Amino acid sequence: MQKTLPGSVNRNPLRKKVNAFFINIYDVYKFSIRFFKEVLAPPYEFKEVVRQCYEIGCKSLPIITLTAFITGVVFTKQSRPSLSEFGATSWLPSLIAIAIIRALAPLMTALVIAGKVGSNMGAEIASMRVTEQIDAMEVSCTNPFKFLVVTRILSITVMLPLLVTYFAFIGMMGAYLNVHSNELTSFRSFIEDSFVKISLLDVFASLLKSVVFGFTIGITGCFKGFTAQHGTVGVGRAANAAVVISMFLIFIEEMVIVQIINYFR
Amino acid sequence: MKKTNYKHPLTVGIFIFIALVIIVTGVFTIGSQQKLFQKKITLNMIFDDVSGLQAGNNVWLSGVKIGTVKRIVFYKNTQVAITMSIESMAQSHICKDAKAKISTDGFIGNKIVVIYGGTESAGFVSNGDFLKSEKGTTTDDMLATLQVNNKNLVEITENFKIITAKMLHGDGTLGKLINDGSMVDELQKTILNLKHASARSEKMMADAAGFTSRLNNSDGLVNELISDTVVFANFKETVGQLKSAVADASVFIDNMQKAGSQLNEQKKPAGMLLSDEELAGDLKVMIKNLKSGSQKLDEDLEAIQHNFLFRGYFRKKAKVKSK
Prior knowledge:
The complex is a heterodimer of chains A (about 260) and B (about 325). By secondary structure, chain A is mostly helical. In chain A, about 80% of the residues lie in helices and about 0% in strands. Chain A has helices at about 15-40, 45-55, 60-85, 90-130, 135-140, 145-185, 185-195, 200-225, 230-265. In chain A, helix 1 packs across helix 6 (about 145-185) and helix 6 packs across helix 8. The N and C termini of chain A lie far apart (about 45 Å). The chains are: A mainly alpha (about 260), B alpha/beta (about 325). The interface between A and B is medium-sized, with 26 and 21 residues.
Protein backbone atom coordinates (compact mmCIF):
# COMPACT_ATOMS: atom_id res chain seq x y z
CA MET A 1 0.00 0.00 0.00
CA GLN A 2 1.36 3.41 -1.04
CA LYS A 3 2.03 5.59 1.97
CA THR A 4 1.49 9.35 2.00
CA LEU A 5 2.04 12.02 4.55
CA PRO A 6 -1.14 12.76 6.54
CA GLY A 7 -3.10 15.64 5.00
CA SER A 8 -0.88 15.99 1.95
CA VAL A 9 -1.96 15.66 -1.68
CA ASN A 10 0.76 14.38 -4.04
CA ARG A 11 -0.06 15.85 -7.41
CA ASN A 12 3.50 16.64 -8.50
CA PRO A 13 5.22 13.34 -9.54
CA LEU A 14 8.66 14.56 -8.44
CA ARG A 15 7.33 15.67 -5.09
CA LYS A 16 5.55 12.34 -4.81
CA LYS A 17 8.82 10.47 -5.42
CA VAL A 18 10.79 12.63 -2.99
CA ASN A 19 8.16 12.08 -0.34
CA ALA A 20 8.14 8.36 -1.02
CA PHE A 21 11.94 8.26 -0.77
CA PHE A 22 12.01 9.93 2.64
CA ILE A 23 9.12 7.85 3.86
CA ASN A 24 11.04 4.80 2.73
CA ILE A 25 14.10 5.94 4.68
CA TYR A 26 11.97 6.45 7.74
CA ASP A 27 10.55 2.96 7.34
CA VAL A 28 14.05 1.50 7.07
CA TYR A 29 15.01 3.42 10.20
CA LYS A 30 12.02 2.00 12.07
CA PHE A 31 12.82 -1.46 10.68
CA SER A 32 16.41 -1.19 11.95
CA ILE A 33 15.33 0.06 15.37
CA ARG A 34 12.91 -2.83 15.61
CA PHE A 35 15.74 -5.22 14.71
CA PHE A 36 17.94 -3.92 17.57
CA LYS A 37 15.03 -4.17 19.99
CA GLU A 38 14.15 -7.67 18.90
CA VAL A 39 17.72 -8.99 18.77
CA LEU A 40 18.26 -8.29 22.44
CA ALA A 41 14.87 -9.42 23.65
CA PRO A 42 14.18 -13.09 24.34
CA PRO A 43 13.25 -15.63 23.19
CA TYR A 44 16.38 -16.23 21.08
CA GLU A 45 16.09 -18.26 17.93
CA PHE A 46 19.50 -19.96 18.16
CA LYS A 47 18.63 -22.90 15.95
CA GLU A 48 17.35 -20.65 13.21
CA VAL A 49 20.45 -18.45 13.56
CA VAL A 50 22.72 -21.48 13.17
CA ARG A 51 20.70 -22.68 10.21
CA GLN A 52 20.91 -19.30 8.59
CA CYS A 53 24.66 -19.19 9.32
CA TYR A 54 24.94 -22.47 7.50
CA GLU A 55 22.84 -21.24 4.60
CA ILE A 56 24.63 -17.93 4.34
CA GLY A 57 28.17 -18.88 5.34
CA CYS A 58 28.86 -22.49 4.54
CA LYS A 59 26.81 -22.64 1.36
CA SER A 60 28.56 -19.55 0.06
CA LEU A 61 32.00 -21.08 0.49
CA PRO A 62 32.30 -22.57 -3.02
CA ILE A 63 31.47 -19.32 -4.79
CA ILE A 64 33.63 -17.32 -2.39
CA THR A 65 36.53 -19.75 -2.89
CA LEU A 66 36.24 -19.50 -6.66
CA THR A 67 35.88 -15.73 -6.65
CA ALA A 68 38.72 -15.20 -4.18
CA PHE A 69 41.13 -17.51 -5.97
CA ILE A 70 40.43 -15.98 -9.36
CA THR A 71 40.67 -12.48 -7.90
CA GLY A 72 44.07 -13.27 -6.36
CA VAL A 73 45.48 -14.83 -9.51
CA VAL A 74 44.06 -12.28 -11.93
CA PHE A 75 45.00 -9.28 -9.82
CA THR A 76 48.57 -10.58 -9.53
CA LYS A 77 48.80 -11.25 -13.25
CA GLN A 78 47.42 -7.84 -14.12
CA SER A 79 49.68 -6.00 -11.66
CA ARG A 80 52.91 -7.69 -12.72
CA PRO A 81 53.54 -5.86 -16.02
CA SER A 82 53.17 -2.44 -14.39
CA LEU A 83 55.59 -3.32 -11.60
CA SER A 84 58.06 -5.15 -13.82
CA GLU A 85 58.40 -2.00 -15.95
CA PHE A 86 60.53 -0.49 -13.24
CA GLY A 87 61.85 -3.74 -11.76
CA ALA A 88 59.60 -3.82 -8.73
CA THR A 89 58.03 -7.28 -9.03
CA SER A 90 59.26 -7.95 -5.51
CA TRP A 91 56.56 -5.52 -4.40
CA LEU A 92 53.80 -7.79 -5.77
CA PRO A 93 53.07 -9.55 -2.43
CA SER A 94 52.83 -6.25 -0.63
CA LEU A 95 50.64 -4.72 -3.32
CA ILE A 96 48.33 -7.74 -3.45
CA ALA A 97 48.03 -7.90 0.33
CA ILE A 98 47.10 -4.23 0.51
CA ALA A 99 44.57 -4.59 -2.29
CA ILE A 100 42.98 -7.79 -0.99
CA ILE A 101 42.98 -7.14 2.76
CA ARG A 102 42.14 -3.46 2.65
CA ALA A 103 39.66 -3.34 -0.20
CA LEU A 104 38.99 -6.37 -2.37
CA ALA A 105 38.15 -8.94 0.29
CA PRO A 106 35.36 -6.97 2.04
CA LEU A 107 34.04 -5.41 -1.14
CA MET A 108 34.05 -8.48 -3.37
CA THR A 109 32.67 -10.73 -0.66
CA ALA A 110 29.92 -8.25 0.14
CA LEU A 111 28.99 -7.93 -3.53
CA VAL A 112 28.93 -11.67 -4.07
CA ILE A 113 26.93 -12.24 -0.91
CA ALA A 114 24.59 -9.38 -1.81
CA GLY A 115 23.96 -11.09 -5.12
CA LYS A 116 23.59 -14.57 -3.72
CA VAL A 117 22.16 -14.14 -0.22
CA GLY A 118 20.58 -10.67 -0.41
CA SER A 119 18.43 -11.60 -3.35
CA ASN A 120 17.58 -14.90 -1.72
CA MET A 121 16.50 -13.15 1.48
CA GLY A 122 14.40 -10.62 -0.42
CA ALA A 123 12.72 -13.24 -2.56
CA GLU A 124 12.17 -15.70 0.29
CA ILE A 125 10.62 -13.23 2.72
CA ALA A 126 8.72 -11.45 -0.04
CA SER A 127 7.15 -14.70 -1.21
CA MET A 128 6.20 -15.45 2.38
CA ARG A 129 4.70 -12.00 2.64
CA VAL A 130 2.69 -12.20 -0.57
CA THR A 131 1.50 -15.72 0.20
CA GLU A 132 0.44 -14.46 3.65
CA GLN A 133 2.66 -16.98 5.47
CA ILE A 134 3.96 -14.13 7.61
CA ASP A 135 0.43 -13.18 8.55
CA ALA A 136 -0.19 -16.82 9.40
CA MET A 137 2.85 -16.83 11.68
CA GLU A 138 1.56 -13.77 13.46
CA VAL A 139 -1.75 -15.47 13.95
CA SER A 140 -0.01 -18.59 15.33
CA CYS A 141 1.76 -16.49 18.02
CA THR A 142 5.14 -16.71 16.33
CA ASN A 143 7.01 -13.45 15.96
CA PRO A 144 7.80 -13.44 12.21
CA PHE A 145 10.15 -10.48 12.53
CA LYS A 146 12.29 -12.27 15.10
CA PHE A 147 12.16 -15.60 13.34
CA LEU A 148 12.65 -14.40 9.79
CA VAL A 149 14.36 -11.03 9.94
CA VAL A 150 16.44 -10.95 13.12
CA THR A 151 17.97 -14.38 12.54
CA ARG A 152 18.90 -13.57 8.96
CA ILE A 153 20.38 -10.16 9.69
CA LEU A 154 22.26 -11.49 12.69
CA SER A 155 23.58 -14.46 10.71
CA ILE A 156 24.77 -12.45 7.75
CA THR A 157 26.34 -9.81 10.06
CA VAL A 158 28.27 -12.55 11.85
CA MET A 159 29.13 -14.62 8.81
CA LEU A 160 30.27 -11.91 6.45
CA PRO A 161 33.47 -11.03 8.44
CA LEU A 162 34.31 -14.73 8.48
CA LEU A 163 33.68 -15.02 4.75
CA VAL A 164 35.82 -11.94 4.19
CA THR A 165 38.64 -13.56 6.17
CA TYR A 166 38.25 -16.69 4.13
CA PHE A 167 38.20 -14.65 0.91
CA ALA A 168 41.40 -12.87 1.92
CA PHE A 169 43.11 -16.17 2.75
CA ILE A 170 42.13 -17.86 -0.51
CA GLY A 171 42.91 -14.71 -2.50
CA MET A 172 46.38 -14.53 -1.01
CA MET A 173 46.94 -18.21 -1.72
CA GLY A 174 45.94 -17.66 -5.34
CA ALA A 175 48.30 -14.71 -5.53
CA TYR A 176 51.07 -16.81 -3.94
CA LEU A 177 50.65 -19.57 -6.52
CA ASN A 178 50.99 -17.03 -9.32
CA VAL A 179 53.93 -15.22 -7.71
CA HIS A 180 55.65 -18.52 -6.91
CA SER A 181 55.25 -19.85 -10.44
CA ASN A 182 56.66 -16.65 -11.96
CA GLU A 183 59.17 -15.29 -9.43
CA LEU A 184 59.92 -18.55 -7.53
CA THR A 185 59.24 -16.72 -4.27
CA SER A 186 59.15 -18.92 -1.18
CA PHE A 187 56.01 -19.05 0.95
CA ARG A 188 57.72 -17.50 3.96
CA SER A 189 59.17 -14.69 1.88
CA PHE A 190 55.76 -14.09 0.33
CA ILE A 191 54.07 -13.88 3.73
CA GLU A 192 56.82 -11.63 5.15
CA ASP A 193 56.58 -9.30 2.17
CA SER A 194 52.78 -9.36 2.18
CA PHE A 195 52.37 -8.07 5.71
CA VAL A 196 55.03 -5.38 5.49
CA LYS A 197 52.49 -2.68 4.71
CA ILE A 198 49.54 -4.20 6.56
CA SER A 199 48.75 -2.94 10.03
CA LEU A 200 46.25 -4.09 12.60
CA LEU A 201 44.20 -1.03 11.69
CA ASP A 202 43.80 -2.46 8.19
CA VAL A 203 42.58 -5.78 9.57
CA PHE A 204 40.24 -4.01 11.96
CA ALA A 205 38.93 -1.73 9.19
CA SER A 206 38.35 -4.70 6.92
CA LEU A 207 36.39 -6.57 9.59
CA LEU A 208 34.45 -3.45 10.50
CA LYS A 209 33.53 -2.92 6.87
CA SER A 210 32.41 -6.52 6.52
CA VAL A 211 30.18 -6.20 9.60
CA VAL A 212 28.63 -3.03 8.20
CA PHE A 213 28.22 -4.59 4.75
CA GLY A 214 26.67 -7.71 6.25
CA PHE A 215 24.22 -5.69 8.26
CA THR A 216 23.39 -3.60 5.18
CA ILE A 217 22.73 -6.64 3.01
CA GLY A 218 20.61 -8.23 5.74
CA ILE A 219 18.58 -5.12 6.48
CA THR A 220 18.05 -4.32 2.80
CA GLY A 221 17.09 -7.87 1.80
CA CYS A 222 14.81 -8.40 4.78
CA PHE A 223 13.21 -4.96 4.52
CA LYS A 224 12.48 -5.35 0.85
CA GLY A 225 11.10 -8.83 1.39
CA PHE A 226 9.15 -7.90 4.50
CA THR A 227 7.53 -4.93 2.79
CA ALA A 228 6.90 -6.67 -0.55
CA GLN A 229 3.57 -6.03 -2.29
CA HIS A 230 1.68 -6.82 -5.49
CA GLY A 231 1.93 -10.59 -5.53
CA THR A 232 4.58 -12.49 -7.44
CA VAL A 233 5.68 -9.37 -9.29
CA GLY A 234 6.49 -7.88 -5.91
CA VAL A 235 8.67 -10.89 -5.09
CA GLY A 236 10.83 -10.27 -8.14
CA ARG A 237 10.97 -6.58 -7.44
CA ALA A 238 11.94 -7.20 -3.83
CA ALA A 239 14.75 -9.58 -4.85
CA ASN A 240 16.01 -7.18 -7.45
CA ALA A 241 15.77 -4.12 -5.19
CA ALA A 242 17.52 -6.02 -2.38
CA VAL A 243 20.54 -6.67 -4.60
CA VAL A 244 20.69 -3.28 -6.31
CA ILE A 245 20.19 -1.21 -3.16
CA SER A 246 22.58 -3.41 -1.17
CA MET A 247 25.31 -2.98 -3.75
CA PHE A 248 24.71 0.75 -3.99
CA LEU A 249 24.86 1.11 -0.22
CA ILE A 250 27.97 -1.10 -0.02
CA PHE A 251 29.88 1.24 -2.33
CA ILE A 252 28.70 4.32 -0.44
CA GLU A 253 29.67 2.75 2.89
CA GLU A 254 33.03 1.65 1.50
CA MET A 255 33.84 5.22 0.56
CA VAL A 256 32.71 6.62 3.92
CA ILE A 257 34.54 4.00 6.00
CA VAL A 258 37.76 4.44 4.00
CA GLN A 259 37.62 8.16 4.72
CA ILE A 260 37.06 7.52 8.42
CA ILE A 261 39.84 4.92 8.63
CA ASN A 262 42.27 7.17 6.78
CA TYR A 263 41.67 9.77 9.44
CA PHE A 264 43.07 7.34 12.03
CA ARG A 265 45.85 5.98 9.84
CA MET B 1 10.76 -38.42 18.78
CA LYS B 2 12.33 -35.74 16.66
CA LYS B 3 15.97 -36.44 15.87
CA THR B 4 18.30 -33.48 16.36
CA ASN B 5 20.26 -32.54 13.24
CA TYR B 6 23.86 -31.83 14.31
CA LYS B 7 25.16 -31.31 10.78
CA HIS B 8 24.49 -27.59 10.56
CA PRO B 9 25.89 -26.53 13.96
CA LEU B 10 29.02 -28.64 13.42
CA THR B 11 29.69 -27.28 9.97
CA VAL B 12 29.04 -23.72 11.08
CA GLY B 13 31.25 -24.27 14.15
CA ILE B 14 34.12 -25.62 12.04
CA PHE B 15 33.76 -22.75 9.60
CA ILE B 16 33.75 -20.15 12.40
CA PHE B 17 36.75 -21.87 14.04
CA ILE B 18 38.79 -21.90 10.81
CA ALA B 19 37.96 -18.26 10.12
CA LEU B 20 38.95 -17.27 13.64
CA VAL B 21 42.22 -19.21 13.31
CA ILE B 22 42.97 -17.28 10.09
CA ILE B 23 42.19 -13.96 11.78
CA VAL B 24 44.28 -14.75 14.87
CA THR B 25 47.20 -16.02 12.76
CA GLY B 26 47.03 -12.90 10.64
CA VAL B 27 46.94 -10.64 13.69
CA PHE B 28 49.91 -12.41 15.26
CA THR B 29 51.85 -12.37 11.99
CA ILE B 30 51.32 -8.63 11.65
CA GLY B 31 52.05 -8.14 15.33
CA SER B 32 55.30 -10.09 15.23
CA GLN B 33 56.39 -8.43 12.00
CA GLN B 34 55.70 -4.95 13.26
CA LYS B 35 57.03 -5.83 16.73
CA LEU B 36 53.75 -4.76 18.30
CA PHE B 37 54.13 -7.06 21.27
CA GLN B 38 57.69 -6.06 22.21
CA LYS B 39 58.96 -3.55 24.77
CA LYS B 40 59.96 -0.27 23.22
CA ILE B 41 61.84 2.89 24.02
CA THR B 42 61.44 6.35 22.58
CA LEU B 43 64.17 8.34 20.83
CA ASN B 44 63.93 11.86 19.50
CA MET B 45 65.58 13.83 16.72
CA ILE B 46 65.32 17.31 15.33
CA PHE B 47 65.57 17.89 11.59
CA ASP B 48 65.52 21.01 9.47
CA ASP B 49 63.69 19.12 6.72
CA VAL B 50 62.04 15.69 6.97
CA SER B 51 61.55 15.33 3.17
CA GLY B 52 58.06 13.86 3.39
CA LEU B 53 58.73 11.43 6.24
CA GLN B 54 55.50 10.17 7.76
CA ALA B 55 54.45 8.62 11.04
CA GLY B 56 54.73 4.85 10.68
CA ASN B 57 57.81 4.93 8.43
CA ASN B 58 60.53 2.50 9.38
CA VAL B 59 63.70 3.17 11.37
CA TRP B 60 66.79 1.22 10.30
CA LEU B 61 70.01 0.48 12.12
CA SER B 62 72.72 -1.24 10.06
CA GLY B 63 70.05 -2.26 7.55
CA VAL B 64 67.82 -3.86 10.18
CA LYS B 65 64.37 -2.49 10.97
CA ILE B 66 64.35 -1.59 14.66
CA GLY B 67 61.31 0.62 14.97
CA THR B 68 58.96 3.14 13.45
CA VAL B 69 58.41 6.87 13.41
CA LYS B 70 55.81 7.59 16.06
CA ARG B 71 55.19 11.32 15.84
CA ILE B 72 56.28 14.28 13.70
CA VAL B 73 55.67 17.77 15.07
CA PHE B 74 57.03 21.23 14.38
CA TYR B 75 59.77 22.37 16.73
CA LYS B 76 60.47 26.05 17.34
CA ASN B 77 59.92 28.02 14.13
CA THR B 78 61.21 26.00 11.21
CA GLN B 79 62.52 22.74 12.61
CA VAL B 80 60.72 19.41 12.92
CA ALA B 81 60.91 17.09 15.92
CA ILE B 82 60.58 13.37 15.30
CA THR B 83 59.74 10.83 17.95
CA MET B 84 60.67 7.25 17.15
CA SER B 85 59.49 4.07 18.78
CA ILE B 86 62.52 1.75 18.99
CA GLU B 87 62.66 -1.87 20.12
CA SER B 88 64.31 -2.07 23.52
CA MET B 89 66.35 -4.98 22.12
CA ALA B 90 68.15 -2.51 19.83
CA GLN B 91 68.90 -0.11 22.69
CA SER B 92 72.24 -1.78 23.39
CA HIS B 93 73.32 -1.23 19.78
CA ILE B 94 72.62 2.49 19.45
CA CYS B 95 75.43 4.69 20.80
CA LYS B 96 74.67 8.03 22.36
CA ASP B 97 76.73 9.86 19.73
CA ALA B 98 75.09 7.99 16.84
CA LYS B 99 73.60 10.11 14.07
CA ALA B 100 70.40 9.79 12.09
CA LYS B 101 69.48 10.81 8.58
CA ILE B 102 66.43 10.52 6.37
CA SER B 103 66.87 8.16 3.46
CA THR B 104 64.75 6.14 1.08
CA ASP B 105 63.93 2.44 1.05
CA GLY B 106 65.22 1.75 -2.46
CA PHE B 107 65.10 4.31 -5.24
CA ILE B 108 61.35 4.80 -5.22
CA GLY B 109 60.53 3.36 -1.82
CA ASN B 110 59.20 4.97 1.35
CA LYS B 111 61.16 7.40 3.43
CA ILE B 112 63.07 5.83 6.30
CA VAL B 113 65.17 7.05 9.20
CA VAL B 114 68.66 5.55 9.16
CA ILE B 115 70.64 5.51 12.42
CA TYR B 116 74.38 5.07 11.93
CA GLY B 117 77.81 5.65 13.45
CA GLY B 118 78.61 6.35 17.07
CA THR B 119 81.29 5.06 19.43
CA GLU B 120 80.85 2.57 22.23
CA SER B 121 82.87 4.76 24.59
CA ALA B 122 80.01 7.30 24.49
CA GLY B 123 77.66 4.71 25.99
CA PHE B 124 74.27 3.56 24.78
CA VAL B 125 71.05 5.48 24.45
CA SER B 126 68.33 5.51 27.03
CA ASN B 127 64.62 6.23 26.82
CA GLY B 128 63.84 9.78 25.64
CA ASP B 129 67.37 10.59 24.39
CA PHE B 130 67.96 12.94 21.47
CA LEU B 131 70.08 11.77 18.54
CA LYS B 132 72.06 14.10 16.31
CA SER B 133 70.57 14.50 12.89
CA GLU B 134 72.34 14.88 9.58
CA LYS B 135 71.01 15.89 6.21
CA GLY B 136 70.85 12.85 3.94
CA THR B 137 70.99 12.71 0.18
CA THR B 138 67.51 13.28 -1.11
CA THR B 139 66.07 12.58 -4.52
CA ASP B 140 66.05 16.34 -5.09
CA ASP B 141 69.81 16.44 -4.47
CA MET B 142 70.34 13.60 -6.93
CA LEU B 143 68.16 15.33 -9.49
CA ALA B 144 70.09 18.57 -8.96
CA THR B 145 73.35 16.69 -9.64
CA LEU B 146 71.77 15.11 -12.69
CA GLN B 147 70.74 18.56 -13.85
CA VAL B 148 74.36 19.74 -13.62
CA ASN B 149 75.42 16.62 -15.53
CA ASN B 150 72.82 17.36 -18.18
CA LYS B 151 74.13 20.89 -18.60
CA ASN B 152 77.67 19.55 -18.93
CA LEU B 153 76.46 17.00 -21.44
CA VAL B 154 74.79 19.71 -23.49
CA GLU B 155 78.00 21.75 -23.41
CA ILE B 156 80.08 18.73 -24.42
CA THR B 157 77.78 17.89 -27.31
CA GLU B 158 77.84 21.51 -28.47
CA ASN B 159 81.65 21.49 -28.39
CA PHE B 160 81.66 18.19 -30.19
CA LYS B 161 79.34 19.66 -32.79
CA ILE B 162 81.76 22.54 -33.36
CA ILE B 163 84.72 20.14 -33.59
CA THR B 164 82.97 17.89 -36.10
CA ALA B 165 81.93 20.92 -38.16
CA LYS B 166 85.56 22.11 -38.25
CA MET B 167 86.69 18.65 -39.19
CA LEU B 168 84.19 18.56 -42.03
CA HIS B 169 85.37 21.94 -43.26
CA GLY B 170 88.97 20.81 -43.20
CA ASP B 171 90.04 23.10 -40.33
CA GLY B 172 92.68 21.94 -37.88
CA THR B 173 94.95 18.90 -38.05
CA LEU B 174 92.16 16.36 -37.93
CA GLY B 175 90.18 18.23 -40.56
CA LYS B 176 93.18 18.34 -42.88
CA LEU B 177 93.84 14.71 -42.23
CA ILE B 178 90.32 13.88 -43.30
CA ASN B 179 90.00 16.28 -46.21
CA ASP B 180 93.59 16.85 -47.49
CA GLY B 181 94.88 14.05 -49.75
CA SER B 182 98.55 15.09 -49.39
CA MET B 183 98.29 14.66 -45.64
CA VAL B 184 97.30 11.09 -46.21
CA ASP B 185 100.42 10.57 -48.36
CA GLU B 186 102.57 12.15 -45.66
CA LEU B 187 100.92 10.00 -43.09
CA GLN B 188 101.53 6.92 -45.19
CA LYS B 189 105.20 7.87 -45.46
CA THR B 190 105.39 8.42 -41.75
CA ILE B 191 103.80 5.07 -41.16
CA LEU B 192 106.33 3.48 -43.55
CA ASN B 193 109.19 5.13 -41.66
CA LEU B 194 107.70 3.96 -38.45
CA LYS B 195 107.57 0.48 -39.93
CA HIS B 196 111.28 0.63 -40.77
CA ALA B 197 112.09 2.07 -37.39
CA SER B 198 110.16 -0.68 -35.73
CA ALA B 199 112.03 -3.29 -37.78
CA ARG B 200 115.35 -1.75 -36.67
CA SER B 201 114.25 -1.52 -33.13
CA GLU B 202 113.25 -5.16 -33.35
CA LYS B 203 116.76 -6.03 -34.51
CA MET B 204 118.23 -3.88 -31.77
CA MET B 205 116.09 -5.60 -29.25
CA ALA B 206 117.26 -8.97 -30.57
CA ASP B 207 120.89 -7.83 -30.15
CA ALA B 208 120.15 -6.59 -26.69
CA ALA B 209 118.53 -9.91 -25.94
CA GLY B 210 121.69 -11.72 -27.15
CA PHE B 211 123.83 -9.44 -25.05
CA THR B 212 121.78 -9.99 -21.97
CA SER B 213 121.80 -13.73 -22.60
CA ARG B 214 125.58 -13.57 -22.67
CA LEU B 215 125.51 -11.63 -19.47
CA ASN B 216 123.37 -14.40 -18.05
CA ASN B 217 125.96 -17.00 -19.08
CA SER B 218 126.97 -18.94 -15.96
CA ASP B 219 130.71 -18.61 -16.78
CA GLY B 220 130.56 -14.83 -17.22
CA LEU B 221 131.87 -12.37 -14.69
CA VAL B 222 128.64 -10.46 -14.45
CA ASN B 223 126.65 -13.61 -13.78
CA GLU B 224 129.18 -14.71 -11.12
CA LEU B 225 129.01 -11.29 -9.58
CA ILE B 226 125.26 -11.53 -9.48
CA SER B 227 124.82 -15.16 -8.53
CA ASP B 228 128.08 -16.33 -6.79
CA THR B 229 128.11 -15.02 -3.25
CA VAL B 230 131.80 -15.95 -2.68
CA VAL B 231 132.96 -14.02 -5.73
CA PHE B 232 130.83 -11.14 -4.74
CA ALA B 233 132.29 -11.21 -1.21
CA ASN B 234 135.84 -11.29 -2.61
CA PHE B 235 134.99 -8.53 -5.02
CA LYS B 236 133.59 -6.51 -2.18
CA GLU B 237 136.68 -7.14 -0.07
CA THR B 238 138.94 -6.17 -3.00
CA VAL B 239 136.99 -3.03 -3.53
CA GLY B 240 137.39 -2.29 0.18
CA GLN B 241 141.12 -2.86 0.02
CA LEU B 242 141.36 -0.74 -3.11
CA LYS B 243 139.49 1.91 -1.28
CA SER B 244 141.97 1.84 1.65
CA ALA B 245 144.90 1.72 -0.83
CA VAL B 246 143.48 4.73 -2.59
CA ALA B 247 143.22 6.46 0.77
CA ASP B 248 146.87 5.56 1.58
CA ALA B 249 147.94 6.69 -1.89
CA SER B 250 146.11 9.92 -1.31
CA VAL B 251 147.99 10.45 1.94
CA PHE B 252 151.26 9.49 0.21
CA ILE B 253 150.61 11.98 -2.59
CA ASP B 254 149.82 14.65 -0.02
CA ASN B 255 153.14 13.97 1.67
CA MET B 256 154.90 13.99 -1.67
CA GLN B 257 153.26 17.28 -2.52
CA LYS B 258 154.36 18.65 0.83
CA ALA B 259 157.90 17.36 0.26
CA GLY B 260 157.90 18.78 -3.25
CA SER B 261 156.81 22.17 -1.97
CA GLN B 262 159.58 22.05 0.61
CA LEU B 263 162.07 21.18 -2.14
CA ASN B 264 161.02 24.33 -3.95
CA GLU B 265 161.79 26.47 -0.90
CA GLN B 266 165.46 27.65 -1.15
CA LYS B 267 165.73 28.35 2.54
CA LYS B 268 165.03 24.77 3.47
CA PRO B 269 168.04 22.35 3.34
CA ALA B 270 166.53 20.15 0.60
CA GLY B 271 165.48 23.18 -1.43
CA MET B 272 168.91 24.65 -0.97
CA LEU B 273 170.42 21.37 -2.21
CA LEU B 274 168.26 21.48 -5.31
CA SER B 275 168.30 25.14 -6.23
CA ASP B 276 171.31 26.87 -4.60
CA GLU B 277 174.15 26.96 -7.19
CA GLU B 278 176.67 28.26 -4.70
CA LEU B 279 176.01 25.37 -2.38
CA ALA B 280 176.25 23.03 -5.31
CA GLY B 281 179.71 24.43 -6.12
CA ASP B 282 180.77 24.08 -2.49
CA LEU B 283 179.46 20.53 -2.44
CA LYS B 284 181.38 19.76 -5.65
CA VAL B 285 184.55 21.05 -4.11
CA MET B 286 183.82 19.15 -0.91
CA ILE B 287 183.28 15.94 -2.81
CA LYS B 288 186.45 16.52 -4.77
CA ASN B 289 188.32 17.08 -1.51
CA LEU B 290 186.68 14.03 0.02
CA LYS B 291 187.72 11.94 -3.00
CA SER B 292 191.33 13.04 -2.82
CA GLY B 293 191.22 12.69 0.96
CA SER B 294 189.90 9.13 0.78
CA GLN B 295 192.63 8.19 -1.77
CA LYS B 296 195.26 9.54 0.50
CA LEU B 297 193.65 7.78 3.49
CA ASP B 298 193.64 4.54 1.54
CA GLU B 299 197.31 4.92 0.82
CA ASP B 300 197.98 5.70 4.48
CA LEU B 301 196.08 2.66 5.67
CA GLU B 302 197.96 0.45 3.19
CA ALA B 303 201.13 1.79 4.61
CA ILE B 304 199.95 1.03 8.18
CA GLN B 305 199.31 -2.62 7.24
CA HIS B 306 202.97 -2.95 6.35
CA ASN B 307 204.13 -1.21 9.50
CA PHE B 308 205.89 -3.53 11.94
CA LEU B 309 203.61 -2.37 14.73
CA PHE B 310 200.46 -3.73 13.02
CA ARG B 311 201.99 -6.52 10.88
CA GLY B 312 201.49 -9.19 13.50
CA TYR B 313 197.80 -8.38 13.88
CA PHE B 314 197.11 -8.77 10.16
CA ARG B 315 199.01 -12.05 9.96
CA LYS B 316 196.89 -13.55 12.78
CA LYS B 317 193.70 -12.45 10.99
CA ALA B 318 194.86 -14.12 7.76
CA LYS B 319 195.62 -17.37 9.59
CA VAL B 320 192.12 -17.46 11.20
CA LYS B 321 190.53 -16.81 7.82
CA SER B 322 192.52 -19.62 6.16
CA LYS B 323 191.38 -22.10 8.87
